[in-house]
Design a protein that fits this description.
The structure holds three protein chains of three kinds. By secondary structure, chain A is an all-alpha fold. Chain A contains twelve helices and no strands. In chain B, the strands form three sheets. A five-stranded parallel β-sheet of chain B has the order 7-5-9-10-11, sandwiched between helices. The A-B interface holds A 34, 36-39, 41, 43-44, 46-48, 51, 97, 100-109, 162-164, 168, 171-176, 178-182, 248, 295, 299-301, 303 and B 2-3, 6, 175-182, 211-212, 214-217, 219-220, 222, 234-239, 241-242, 245-253.
Chain lengths: 331, 344, 276
């Protein structure tokens, strides 16, 4: 791959390209998804398209957020298997959301979910930090522990509630973009967070590159490694928490998108960050469109999280074989 | 509560065209032992108490909590899972349940308990079940009296709505978090029959038990009235508000535009039992506001009933006894005044 | 004070030592003291080599000079300014560090790796200018690494990778270069090529180089100053002739040595005599 200079012109052009791709896919998703149910009057058409627009917007925001968070966590933990839920933030958001929607408040459940995510960030930081510093390995282990705790807690709640409520919990845990009800307010908030994270990570992208190469290298080249780690951890966790509070834990987007992009664009985070933002959005809009088509054909709902999970397996096999082939060539 | 619907759903598989449909158990040999009844389905429990057999019931399912006397009985499980030890201790002589499965009935038969499987997907099946219970318990006259009362109740509702325009009504359950689809009553179910009795047409066009639909389909169905049965006393306090807000986004639906989305919390709407008359009446009054005796009391727009907390439920008595009080809803004063015959 | 956006202009021109440490002490948290009051002065435009046995604290000292570690006591100055007073970016533009760590194979090409050396100069989003590319290519040429500029880092041998790391440091266009055993994996030709390059940089561009060296002879042949570090202290400092002496080296390395003179260069070289 011949290296190209990273210039302003190239940057703007690539952003425009990714943006157009997303836009095209989004328009198709709105129209095709809407047309699956016939409408008779103009009022119905507006209503249906309005709903589709909201769902596509949700998918875009969540996809962008998860892809960004996945990229950031992979850089932070220096681990290609890292994904947004690895540090337990999604578990905290999920537990808080579930408890709220069952016992406290239905309308405020997403807010509680986000608060749960915030609390988890604080807890994980408190446990993983040593003298105020975050080491990737310790962070990873702490995340595993916290995940286990939340997994067990959710299981406990599921066991204790009425059987019909168990079904609801299970469905939510699969991750669903569309809801029977408006979400614009939440989508806007999550969208703002995702955009903010994108800008922040674009500024940190240089640092991600250097930290990936070596911690000492990065420090010597002027990267505030510790600050970078903490900020990345907090911001990536927040957008993850917002996503989970909005649509539930949709898996694999945060894992697949960064890897796919690395295969196309290489390991340079300066190019990966804006690409992740738009490609993540496109990816999830496409997945949602597929789920919508399925629903139209079979008259049953397919949670998007199921679709993305099914994509995960063949993807991993492919990834594994690519790595084998690559390392075999070097030898 | 939706749990009752799930029981119906469990028993309501798509209709098979089987050669030998189960018409109910063959007539039993007269049982010399005193009657000890186990009821594993809520509507059966209500039927038993309405037939005056309440004192013979020794055990109920976890979901049978009406009438209040039933709630005091020991709960042994449900049609999918039973606690055998508890049942053995109760020493029932006969068990009634609404199910299509064989596993639980077989286990009860194995314990020497005569088990009668009943169906109540449709009204005629529900009435047939009452007859069967009358036969099995040696009280055919009580059964017939109950059937007559129910049919009279329904006929009375039909008379009241005769001649009124028949709007398209969608009977739905509250949406659940995480799903974009809601469960609605399809055609052919007994709720659908109640809607017809109440002078409405089911907005869902096809024969189906409890299908789920997404918002786009609701828009396409364009119901004039939407009734949402939000039972569940332990739901979060803002659930009604959440339902209201969710439906408000479907602006092109006529019911939404005209403020004809009603949230009813009564649990008996989905129980094919003695209270179907009440159910039909409530539906009729909700669907046809012009039935309200005083025009000023017409409650148009959104209204939701608070969950029935702390209000005494009517005590169900067999025919011949004076009814205690009216059914407890906010419309109670209207309901009493327009009811004929003073029956509860 | 150091300025943002370029090498500081307001510098005390050649007044006093360029790289200086005074009574530097350092201990890792809950660990033994690695540096015990070490003082060191390197003038501008000189090539100084840090020598010493394993564990004497050379790498730690270097990392303190880069700013990766903070000394528990004592002071470190660059160009007369305290290290703590440098903004991070300005420090990175002034000081280049060639660490001992191996580069993680993340998929970057050689050219991309060397371009990373330009990151103190490339601004917030990291846009690269023609100037950056020129510096990177020049650095690759100087380290004889431009043949594999477009290859992935994983494909290179250890020695080739080391040259790439040095090129990255060169691309930074620093005033000070701190290198930690930069030639440990290189063959003889490249060892001498690198040290020769360092000498040239020192002479032609007035860069100050502090270099940790395992190879005493290499250091003796090229360095202007030698600093012998032992157990966290300076055991000897001065020109090669002053430090490369049996009475100085034997006690520190705990092994008998013999010192000869290279007729051609006039520099001392040593022959270790294994005990017994």
């Amino acid at each position: 791959m011949t290296p190209r200079p990273f210039t302003v012109g190239g940057y703007v052009l690539s952003i425009a390209t990714w943006l157009s791709l997303w836009f095209g896919v989004a328009v198709v998703a709105v129209v095709v998804g809407g047309r699956l149910w016939a409408w008779d009057t103009r009022l119905q058409m507006e209503n249906v398209l309005g709903l589709r627009l909201e769902w596509v917007a949700t998918a875009s925001v969540v996809g962008a957020a998860l892809a960004l968070a996945g990229l950031a966590f992979q850089a932070l933990l220096r681990n290609p298997l890292a994904e947004p839920y690895i540090l337990g933030v999604s578990g905290g958001a999920a537990l808080a959301f579930i408890l709220s929607s069952l016992f406290l408040s239905v309308t405020l459940a997403p807010v509680f979910g986000f608060v749960g995510a915030l609390a988890t960030v604080a807890i994980v930081y408190a446990i993983a930090q040593r003298r105020g510093r975050l080491e990737p390995y310790t962070l990873l282990l702490t995340g595993v522990i916290i995940n286990a705790f939340y997994g067990a807690s959710i299981m406990l709640v599921t066991a204790l509630v009425r059987p019909e409520q168990r079904g609801d919990i299970a469905v939510w845990m699969m991750g669903n973009i569309g809801a029977f009800g408006p979400q614009w307010g939440l989508v806007k908030v999550a969208g703002g967070l995702a955009a903010g994270a994108a800008i922040l990570f674009a500024l940190l992208a240089k640092g991600f590159n250097l930290v990936a190469v070596g911690e000492d290298t990065a420090g010597a080249l002027g990267v505030p490694v510790e600050r970078l780690r903490i900020v990345t951890f907090v911001v990536a966790s927040l957008v993850t928490g917002a996503s989970v509070a909005l649509v539930g834990p949709i898996g694999f987007v945060g894992l697949i998108c960064p890897h796919l992009l690395r295969m196309i664009l290489g390991p340079d985070h300066r190019r990966l960050v804006p690409a992740a933002f738009f490609f993540g959005a496109t990816f999830l809009v496409l997945a949602d469109l597929l789920a919508c088509l399925w629903e139209g054909a079979s008259d049953r709902a397919l949670p998007v999280g199921v679709l993305t999970a099914m994509c995960g397996v063949p993807f991993f096999i492919y990834l594994l074989r690519m790595r084998w082939r690559r390392s075999a060539e070097i030898r | 509560m939706r749990c009752r619907v799930l029981h119906l759903v469990a028993g309501l598989l798509p209709v098979f065209l089987l050669a030998g449909c189960d018409k109910g158990a063959p007539p039993a040999a007269p049982d010399a032992r005193p009657l000890r009844i186990l009821s594993l389905t809520p509507n059966i429990t209500e039927i038993l108490f309405a037939m005056g057999l309440g004192d013979k019931v020794v055990g109920r399912s976890t979901y049978c909590n009406y009438p209040p006397e039933a709630a005091a009985l020991p709960a042994v499980g449900d049609t999918m899972q039973v606690g055998l030890e508890k049942i053995i201790r109760l020493e029932p002589t006969v068990a009634f349940m609404v199910t299509r499965r064989d596993d639980v009935p077989k286990r009860l038969e194995g314990l020497g308990i005569r088990t009668v499987k009943l169906q109540s997907d449709r009204m005629d099946q529900a009435l047939e079940s009452i007859r069967t219970i009358g036969r099995e318990t040696g009280r055919p006259e009580a059964a017939q009296a109950l059937i007559d009362r129910i049919e009279a109740d329904l006929a009375a509702v039909r008379r009241r709505v005769a001649g009124l325009p028949r709007p398209k009504v969608l009977f739905a359950f509250p949406m659940t978090v995480g799903s974009s689809r809601i469960m609605v009553a399809g055609r052919g179910t007994f709720v659908d029959e109640l809607l017809t009795t109440a002078g409405a047409e089911n907005a869902y066009p096809e024969k189906a038990d409890w299908p789920t639909v997404g918002p786009q389909q609701v828009i396409a169905m364009a119901p004039d009235v939407v009734i949402i049965n939000a039972t569940g006393e332990d739901a979060p306090p803002d659930r009604v508000e959440a339902i209201r807000r969710a439906w408000q986004s479907l602006t092109s639906v006529p019911a939404v535009a005209r403020g004809r989305v009603h949230i009813l919390t009564e649990t008996f709407l989905t129980i094919p039992g003695p209270r179907v008359g009440q159910a039909a009446r409530l539906l009729a009054e909700t669907i046809h506001p012009e039935l309200h005796a005083e025009a000023g009391k017409v409650s148009m727009g959104w209204h939701g009933h608070a969950p029935l907390r702390g209000q005494e439920l009517p005590s169900y008595r067999a025919p011949g006894h004076a009814p205690a009080r009216g059914h407890a809803t906010r419309q109670s004063d209207f309901a009493l005044s327009s009811r004929e015959g003073g029956r509860s | 004070m150091a300025q943002v956006g370029g090498n500081p202009v307001a510098v005390q021109a050649a007044a006093g030592p360029y790289v200086e440490g005074r009574d530097v002490e350092f201990a890792y948290p809950k660990g033994p003291r690695v540096l015990q009051g070490l003082s060191l002065r390197v003038e501008r435009g000189r090539l100084a080599c840090l020598l010493g046995p394993n564990g004497s604290g050379k790498t730690t000292l270097l990392r303190i000079f880069v700013g990766l570690l903070a000394p528990s006591k004592g002071e470190v100055r660059l160009a007369g300014i305290r290290l703590a007073d440098y903004p991070r970016g300005a420090l990175a533009r002034r000081v280049a560090y060639v660490p001992q760590e191996t580069l993680a194979a993340v998929g970057f090409t050689v050219l991309e790796t060397v371009l990373m050396g330009r990151s103190p100069h490339t601004g917030a989003l990291g846009f690269e200018s023609a100037r950056d590319w020129y510096a990177a290519r020049e650095a690759l040429r100087l380290t004889d690494a431009d043949a594999f500029a477009e290859r992935g880092l994983e494909e290179l041998s250890g020695g080739e990778r080391q040259r790439v790391i040095i090129a990255r440091a060169l691309a930074q266009e620093p005033d000070v270069m701190l290198l930690d055993e930069p030639t440990s994996f290189l063959d003889i030709r490249h060892q001498h090529a690198i040290y020769g390059l360092l000498r040239r940089l020192v002479k032609e561009r007035e860069i100050t180089v502090v270099c940790v060296s395992h190879d005493l002879n290499l250091a003796a042949a090229y360095a202007d100053d030698l600093v012998l570090v032992s157990r966290g202290r300076v055991a000897a400092a001065g020109k090669p002739d002053e430090v490369i002496r049996p009475e100085v080296l034997s006690p520190v390395y705990e092994t008998p040595v013999e010192v000869r003179r290279d007729e051609a260069t006039g520099r001392p070289y040593l022959l270790p005599r294994p005990p017994g």
